[in-house]
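2 proteins. here.
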Amino acid sequence: MLAKTVLAALLISSALGVGSAFAGPAAGLARPLRSAPPSQFITATKFTLAPFAFVRFCKDNSGSCDAGRGDAEVTLTPALRAELLRINSTVNRTIIAQNDDDGDDVWAQDVTAGDCEDFALTKRHQLIKAGWPTRSLRIAVAKTRAGEGHAVLVVRTSEGDLVLDNRSSAVRAWNQTDLKWIKIQSGDNPRLWYDI
């Protein structure tokens, strides 16, 4: 009797064009309306100023700031996922976390000690050396839950924008982090930055 009642309710709601809020054996047939899931990719809105320390980094390391090459999105195979995890974990272990001594923010890559942007730039550099396309690798600036400025590497993949953060060896989707996003590089031209 219950099955006939459920089926009748589903048929009536379907004919009227309304979703069923009925939870039961047939609940999978009519799904309740939900809000759209958050995007897998960061949405850049408008041009903004690059961090001043990054501008200085490009002046001293122009090759690292050349126009992007290759695909804007990497098809993430199991081998590439393993490489991404390995490089993230290795850089996190080998660089000693240390803030800039005199308060003057200096961005650098391939260092033995440094702060968040140095980790991000080193990961980007290591991935480029491993053959990853530069267009898929972008530095982003955000704030942590504690309100501190923070920089990370964002990798655009077939599974969405993934974040390589020096605070964790896990690689997470951008919308599954505790970060409040501020700005991100252009994949086509790393010297250009966008608001998020």
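next one coming up
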Amino acid sequence: MAEQTLKEKTAKGLFWGGLNGGIQQLLNLFFGIFLARLLSPGDYGMIGMLGIFMGLATVLQDSGFGTALINRKEIKHEDYNSVFWFSLSIGCICYVVLFFCAPLIASFYKKPELVNLSRVLFLWFLISSTSIAHSALLTKKLMVRERTKIEVSALFVSGTVGIILAYNGFSYWGIALQTVIHAFIGSVLRWYYVKWRPTYSFELGPLKEMFSFGVKIMFTSIFSQINANIFSVLLGRFYKEDQVGYYTQGNKWMTMGYTFIWGMIGNVSLPVLSEVSCDVKRQQKVFRKMLRFVSFISFPAMLGLAFVAKELIVISVSDKWLPCVPVMQLMCIWGAVMPISNLYTHVLLSHGKSNLFLYNTIILGIVQLVVVVSLLSLGIYYMVLAFVVVNILWMFVWHYFVNKCVEISIVDAAKDILPFGLISLIVLCITYFVTMSISNIYLLLVTKVLFAAFLYSFFMYLTNSVIFKETFDFFIKKK
């Protein structure tokens, strides 16, 4: 009965996670197209330069305690309460520090406009610090339906405001205020859906108990943010803001696709893997099924996105963004593998191996930084290419440590992952030759998408894919 309950919870979480991701990315696509047509690459570049500061402040306000709450077997009011007051305090401190550091940031990039822009944009993490504990509770309780309502509502309201501001000539201020409003709406709705409320008593005990695990997650996240924003920093410092904008736009399209896939499974994988972490064989079975599911979705979606990148960019945001296409295509290759990499890390976290998560991320970050900086003079394309290659190769390192937890060999992992990747590549090659004579760009995009989707489904049916059959049966039952 317990197994069935876990399966139902996981299936429900995947369904609502997929629905959430799908709606979010449709809204992101809708608002992103309007904003990209209204704004210039330089406007996106101005926001992109501040990404690393936003990311680091967000990590510090959470300090790994959000993940620690999710991973905790037994949890009490005092645990949530301590994390709430800690996150709020750190959020306030970070905002004050960055508020007064704004002139230094502007000086580093040689952009005086960044002083006021950063002070407004940084309100985002100050506001979001009020709902860190509430967000952890939503994930812990697998309240994926409520998360869907929260995130979609916040995105719709903030996106509408962003378009109105951009249309009226507010340039990059439209993106900044859109970001702040998104945080405000999201925090308000988390308080609405989560009935838990903080009390004025503050205890250090729960934080001490979670400190060892949480601090490693915090440092890991810091390095992850540095890795994720290294291009924006280097391009912003040594190139023009247009180059930052092209990178930001290309990476944004990849992120939309990746977020849909990881949003489907990311809010479910850690709680479920933690629940079965005491039974190695059972966790191995759950992990391998998740591995097959995410590969089944990720490879055709992300490689397909790279395949139609040129047509998609020209049709949606105009040819002024064409320089972002090569970046988008390379990042999509990494985006196809990234959900699998994240799934590996969730296995380590479910076993409390936050130290391995930390050390691997630090070493990976150092390797990435050295490689990317060494290619700085060659331009953004070779920098991104090196970044993608290093991250894909690092999958073998993640696998080595996960194998020690759930006893899955590289051959078994390859059997779960590679078939979907190979079939996706075959499908895209066939589609390329079938559609290469089509000159109309609109017809070309539609034909590529429909033909590739049909062919991939046909191959899944032909190879009698269990994941394909179970996914199809699940949605038939939903209807």
